[in-house]
Amino acid sequence: MNMSMNVTIFGAGFSGLAIARTLAPECDHLAGTTRGPARFAELQAAGLSPFIYDGGQPSPDLAATLARTTHLVMSISPDSGGDPLLDAFAGGLGDVMPALEWIGYLSTVGVYGDHGGDWVDEETPCRPVSRRSVARLAAEQGWAELADRAGVPLAIIRLSGIYGPGRNALRTVEQGKARRLIKPGQVFNRIHVDDIGGATALLARKRLGGIYNVTDDKPAPPQDVVEFAAGLLGVEPPPESDFETADLSPMARSFYGENKRVANEKIKAAGYTFLYPDYVLGLEGLMLNGF
Questions:
Q1: Any residues with CB less than 8 A from the CB of 27 and at least 6 apart, and which?
Q2: pLDDT tens figures, 81-135
Q3: Is residue 216 within 8 Å of residue 264, measured between CB atoms?
Q4: Fewer beta carbons below 10 Å: N end or C end of the chain?
Q5: Is the whole model's pTM more than 0.90, yes or no?
Q6: With contact defined as beta carbons under 8 Å apart, do 204 and 5 qualify?
Q7: SS (H, E, C) the chain
């Protein structure tokens, strides 16, 4: 039987809102942060009491909510200056969140770096390539130290490429923005945002710590996903283009610098069953719901 949960989500964006919607029915209280009041209605629609947080020490209202928080979800990307909450909570979590029982930190499979298309799992040593993945790994380590000092279990939830309603290959094909970039041997994993919600909720309920890859079963070349989406829409896929000569932003090109297949057995062993175990089922589900 679950004890009651009092959840605060720092960074209630695409993934944070999916987590909120999943947990809302079983929470005594659910709070979420955003950088300004423009998204308050969106947070409220997901069942969240909205708070502004844009770095530094939490406001008095947010601090009062943190004082009764049992479950903390951290979904703010570290910027060039690092993770803002690690600085804010550097004195320890116990004084700020005396009721805390569990922390979930949303990270990225980018921390593994490049493995030449080989399989990686939670035991694989991390060797991040991009600056953002280096910052993520440093933030993971910072949260591990904070959680350890507080004696609270920390789940590090490593996510692959996120898609879901309004943010998927069906949309980019329909809008004429999709590209079929060909880089031989390149594969990516993906994850439907509803599975981020479901897997995080399971870890929160069970108060499980450790590292978990939350990613689909089917690493695949990116052009295959675009082609499948075009087929669902009944349109011609965009022409193939060579990755080496394509005009790409430095960030887009950097994603292709990491090639790996990410295993997800550990989250399944914890008891999670994926709603969308591959992009085929994920895009078919989105097609049915207006994508």
A1: 4, 5, 6, 7, 47
A2: 789 999 999 999 999 999 999 999 999 999 999 999 999 999 999 999 888 999 9
A3: yes
A4: N
A5: yes
A6: yes
A7: CCCCEEEEEECCCHHHHHHHHHHHHHEEEEEEEECCHHHHHHHHHCCCEEEECCCCCCCHHHHHHHHCCCEEEECCCCECCECHHHHHCCCCCCCCCCCCCEEEEEEEHHHHECCCCCEECCCCCCECCCHHHHHHHHHHHHHHHHHHHHCCCEEEEEECEEEECCECHHHHHHCCCCCEEECCCCCECEEEHHHHHHHHHHHHHHCCCEEEEECCCCCECHHHHHHHHHHHHCCCCCCEEEHHHCCCCHHHHHHCCCCCEECCHHHHHCCCCCCCCCHHHHHHHHHHCCC
Tell me the per-residue pLDDT of 39-50, one tens digit each, with 9 for 90 and over. 999 999 999 999
- One-letter amino acid at 206 equals K
* Pairwise CA distance, residues 281 & 180, whole Å: 20
Query: What does the chain come to in residues?
Result: 291
> 68: which 2 tokens?
């009764």
